[in-house]
Amino acid sequence: MNIAVTTWSLEQTSAADARPAGEPPKDVRIERAEIPSPEFSRFLYTAVGGDVRWTDRLSLTYAEWEKTLGAPGTETWVAYEKGTPAGYAEIAAQEGGSVEIVYFGLIAAFRGRRIGGHLLSYAVERAWDLADRWPGLAPTERVWVHTCSKDGPHAMDNYLRRGFTLFDTTVEDEPEIDTPGPWPGSHPASA
């Protein structure tokens, strides 16, 4: 069975476009996962995307995860609340000074707690200063992201509030694929 999926692509073309969110709860910190770890990244991917139909990376082999995460200019930033992973952002350098926020989101139990706006603001800042951490990388001239109708209901609003502008919309039929989670009863919203 297929489902129609709308994908919206958004961008910032100047660091001045970025609009930061308010401060998160005091027990939230964001830290870079400096050692590429397929196991940890796959955990984040399934934990965040399990209830919003993220399936495109489920078939990747361990070696493919390693290659993707180890590419120059690829970084994973993880939000923690009281030491527990709450969500993440994966950013990746592309040709011509473009940086994509490849994945971004929160685990269901951490949504609605003022963490997402802060994490997105932080990821955008790290995208704009990516070349500072990667010698030889072109300075960032554009930060972009895409979201789709399979993502959470507040994703688009968060991107717009952080200063992104829409530059493309597409609609395609995709096969409906079972997702890895969340576990039944893992969060009140999924019960």
TrEMBL record:
Top-level class of the enzyme under EC nomenclature: transferase
Keyword Transferase included in the entry's annotation: yes
A single MF term (Gene Ontology): acyltransferase activity
CDD domains assigned to the protein according to its UniProt record, in alphabetical order: NAT_SF (cd04301)
Record bears the keyword Secreted: no
Enzyme Commission (EC) number: 2.3.-.-
Keywords, in A-Z order: Acyltransferase, Transferase
Lineage: superkingdom: Bacteria
SUPFAM superfamilies: Acyl-CoA N-acyltransferases (Nat)
Boundaries of every N-acetyltransferase domain copy: 28-180
Name recorded for this polypeptide: GNAT family N-acetyltransferase
Protein's organism: Streptomyces amakusaensis
